[in-house]
């Protein structure tokens, strides 16, 4: 962020420097011009009448009949000050003096200003105007504009006869052919509709992804497709504008072919009275004959060549090269391809394939008793159940070291009778054991009355006291219980660290400086019935990791026992009376209840034993309600033969709404694929036809040669 701010500041500073530099150069150039204007020399020469009229017309000023002129010989410099990429102001200097020229000069590809040379300047009040410089002549420029207007009028009138001051003669006029009309008034380029359609397809796919809205897919994609291609079709078939084509005979004096434009130039013999230009395709320029009487045609409305002698014509180029005949077949193919790809990448393919099977298999099987499963034989069949129950299955997580609790019960089996939930029954002994463990290894809070007295004594002494919940009552019996537990778990990585902490607390309790190995034996064998019960107050922060160790022990043992219970579900066969195994996938998991029990990432991510007991009781109630509820609707995803029976896999997430949504997506995707192929084939045929015509034209030309 700081780097971009720095770059922006630098650019602003550079722009400010450039602006003031430009303004300084401008003031200096104006000053140099003013010095010349103030110098009244004898024997001045004056502009011709044509030059005076040209100045008045070009710069919209009123001049006297006598306008003095001077000749300047020196470097020509053109400086442009730009604002956000657009030309804001242009400064032209000759010999360091500011001069004025028409703005159109800088936009014309015909005029190239010299870097050095002689310029003819008119002195008008406090300004210098350029009359001629290098190839540029103001009079010729004005004459050329007037001549061009006159020529356009003469061509537009279509009146036979010679055009004044130009070596051109009008031979006749005709209406443009259909191909020529289509060339000049071409169908709208495909990208005008293609790009918005592509964006709508991509945005619709993103917004509708994962939603069971067949109508949404049909409206967003289908309506966009119909409306967009409707506009294309209307543009393709609409009536074209009419154009007039004038046939001319005359001499072409110059051919210009550069990166900006290509045109021919026609002017009178002296070139003093102006010229007229006609645009033409670039590949025609090599066949233009100069200073030879030729016949060519121009379009009145566009001032472009339509044909030149018998060698070139727009209609022939279009027939050979296919120019503008099908300008957006490629855009059509690209648009339909984007439509198909947008639908493809938002499809969940297993469900898309299943929806096709559902379309082919409309049968619904009613299951009233377990033996009715024998009628389920095909993938895509819909199942309606009135007397079936569920038994959850615990699946291992990706790491394989724990049950995938967030997705618990997303897979289960269908059973014929209700299933008892023994969650609390199985885990109660473990919870009782962990609760006893917590009581023995706990450091309880002191009574609030005792805390109040401590707080009073501290305030009288001018001291503060920590919060009540952070003061632990460290009893000797608790330290003894910790030592006994730790000695049973010597394999722990923190054994030595925890043992040292307990010894330091025991030494403090016994009021001795150093507690050696004999203290550990004393702590392990202490009999508080004969020695009495003692305690000391400690900040919980001084107890180190003892509280974390106790909490982790409770969490680990509880989760291990819960995992064993879940693994036992997968090995428990409740369908031994049937050879048919029915499994269900993609059910809505009970994420909320296991979040409450295990508290993934939340405040209760580590509970006490009693906290686990309460959360587990609630989970058992929800689980029992789910397992003992009937299964109303499912779709068959696979039927596989087993030894003496079969295995049926059901999907409960493939609802009718989702089925229609996938069918709509698939239909639109198939339409996009088919149309893409059609448009590509049309492009290939068009290309092949053009190659064939081109080869035929070349062979004909060779024969004529």
Automatic annotation (TrEMBL):
Keywords assigned: Membrane, Transmembrane, Transmembrane helix
Transmembrane segments: 6-22, 193-209, 215-233, 328-349, 659-684
Source organism (scientific name): Enterovibrio gelatinilyticus
Keyword Transmembrane: yes
Protein name as catalogued: Intracellular growth attenuator protein igaA
The organism's place on the tree of life at top rank: Bacteria
């Amino acid at each position: 962020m700081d780097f971009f701010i720095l770059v922006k500041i630098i650019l602003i500073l550079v722009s400010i420097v450039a602006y003031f530099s430009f303004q300084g150069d401008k003031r200096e150039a104006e000053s140099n011009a003013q010095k010349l204007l103030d110098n009244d020399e004898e024997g001045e020469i004056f502009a011709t009448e044509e030059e005076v009229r040209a100045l008045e017309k070009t710069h919209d000023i009123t001049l006297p009949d006598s306008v003095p002129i001077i000749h300047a010989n020196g470097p020509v410099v053109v400086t442009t000050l730009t604002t956000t990429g657009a030309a804001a102001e242009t400064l032209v200097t000759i010999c360091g003096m500011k001069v004025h020229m028409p703005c159109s000069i800088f936009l014309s590809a015909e005029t190239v200003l010299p870097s050095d040379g002689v310029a003819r300047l008119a002195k008008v009040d406090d300004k210098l105007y350029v009359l001629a410089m290098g190839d540029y002549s103001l009079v010729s420029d004005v004459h050329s504009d007037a001549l061009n207007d006159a020529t356009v009028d003469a061509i537009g009138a279509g009146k036979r006869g010679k055009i004044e001051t130009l070596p051109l003669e009008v031979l006749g006029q005709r209406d443009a052919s259909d191909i020529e009309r289509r060339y000049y008034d071409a169908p709208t380029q495909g990208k005008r509709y293609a790009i918005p359609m592509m964006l709508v397809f991509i945005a619709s796919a993103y917004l509708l992804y994962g939603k069971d809205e067949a109508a949404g897919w049909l409206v967003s994609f289908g309506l966009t497709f119909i409306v967009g291609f409707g506009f294309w079709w209307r543009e393709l078939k609409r009536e074209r504008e009419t154009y007039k084509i004038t046939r001319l005979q005359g001499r072409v004096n110059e051919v210009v072919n550069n990166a900006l434009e290509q045109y021919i130039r026609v002017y009178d013999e002296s070139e003093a009275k102006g010229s007229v230009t006609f645009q033409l395709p670039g590949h025609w320029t090599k066949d233009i004959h100069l200073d030879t009487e030729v016949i060519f045609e121009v379009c009145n409305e566009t001032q472009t060549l339509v044909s030149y002698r018998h060698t070139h014509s727009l209609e022939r180029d279009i027939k050979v090269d296919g120019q503008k005949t099908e300008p957006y077949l490629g855009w059509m193919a690209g648009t339909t391809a984007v439509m198909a790809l947008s639908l493809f990448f938002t499809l969940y393919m297993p469900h898309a394939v299943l929806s096709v099977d559902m379309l082919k298999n409309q049968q619904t099987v009613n299951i009233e008793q377990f033996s009715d499963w024998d009628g389920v034989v095909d993938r895509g069949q819909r199942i309606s159940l009135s007397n079936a129950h569920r038994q959850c299955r615990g699946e291992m997580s990706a790491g394989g070291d724990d049950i995938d609790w967030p997705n618990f019960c997303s897979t289960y089996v269908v059973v014929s009778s209700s299933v008892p939930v023994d969650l609390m029954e199985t885990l109660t002994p473990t919870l009782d054991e962990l609760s006893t463990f917590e009581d023995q290894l706990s450091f309880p809070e002191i009574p609030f009355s005792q805390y109040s007295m401590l707080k009073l004594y501290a305030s009288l002494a001018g001291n503060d006291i920590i919060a009540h919940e952070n003061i632990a009552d460290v009893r000797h019996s608790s330290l003894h219980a910790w030592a006994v537990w730790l000695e049973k778990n010597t394999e722990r990585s923190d054994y030595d660290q925890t043992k040292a902490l307990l010894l330091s607390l025991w030494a403090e309790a016994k009021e001795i400086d150093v507690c050696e190995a004999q203290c550990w034996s004393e702590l392990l064998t202490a009999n508080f019935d004969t020695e009495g019960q003692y305690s000391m107050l400690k900040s919980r922060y001084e107890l180190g990791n003892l509280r974390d160790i106790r909490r982790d022990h409770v969490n680990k043992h509880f989760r291990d026992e819960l995992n064993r219970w879940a693994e036992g579900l997968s090995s428990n066969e409740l369908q031994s009376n049937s050879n048919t195994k029915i499994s269900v996938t993609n059910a809505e998991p009970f994420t909320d209840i296991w979040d409450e029990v295990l508290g993934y990432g939340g405040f209760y991510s580590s509970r006490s034993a009693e906290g686990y007991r309460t959360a587990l009781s609630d989970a058992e109630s929800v689980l029992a309600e789910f397992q003992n509820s009937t299964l109303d609707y499912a779709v068959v995803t696979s039927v596989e033969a087993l030894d003496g029976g079969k295995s049926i896999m059901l999907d409960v997430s493939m609802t009718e709404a989702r089925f229609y949504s996938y069918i709509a997506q698939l239909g639109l995707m198939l339409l996009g694929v088919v149309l893409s192929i059609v448009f590509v084939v049309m492009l290939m045929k068009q290309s092949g036809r053009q190659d064939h015509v081109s080869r035929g034209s070349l062979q004909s030309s060779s024969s004529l040669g």
